[in-house]
Amino acid sequence: MAYKLSFFLPCLLLTTSYTFATPVIYGEAVTVCSRSASDNATGIRCLEKQLQQTEQTVQRTLESALKQVQSEDWLLPNMDYESEDSQIVKDTANALRNDQAAWEKHKALFCQVASSQISSNAPGYPTLVTQCKINMNQARIAELKQLMAQLKSE
């Protein structure tokens, strides 16, 4: 139990010690995993599972967004689109795919920078990076849902 606390406690203390810091490296996943983990390895597996779940949700949401931007419902009536097979529809889908690839690179670099408040050799560093990626994934899911909501609001 002491080992568990030595892994997660620095992350929890950072939350209260550095309240001016952007909350992107802190979040519910660390808190949930620290409560349920009996040791360091269990805590890491818990965080990795949550990261994997959010990554899968990002992919499912992206697939839904891609389907939507390629559908007839996305196209505004009486505009200069010929059909859902027109070049602009293909370009839009490619733009969204390229945006996702750029976002994945951004996420990795951003979390590296956001977690740099402590040494990458510190025991809590991987926890901060993983929590950051979870938070970034959740934000991306919300962005993609906002994109898809455009259709419903028009």
TrEMBL record:
Keyword terms of this UniProt record: Signal
UniProt entry tagged with the keyword Signal: yes
Protein's UniProt keywords contain Signal: yes
Domain Lysozyme inhibitor LprI-like N-terminal span(s) in chain numbering: 33-144
Signal peptide residue numbers: 1-21
Domain of life: Bacteria
UniProt-listed InterPro entries: LprI-like_N
Name of the protein in its database record: Lysozyme inhibitor LprI-like N-terminal domain-containing protein
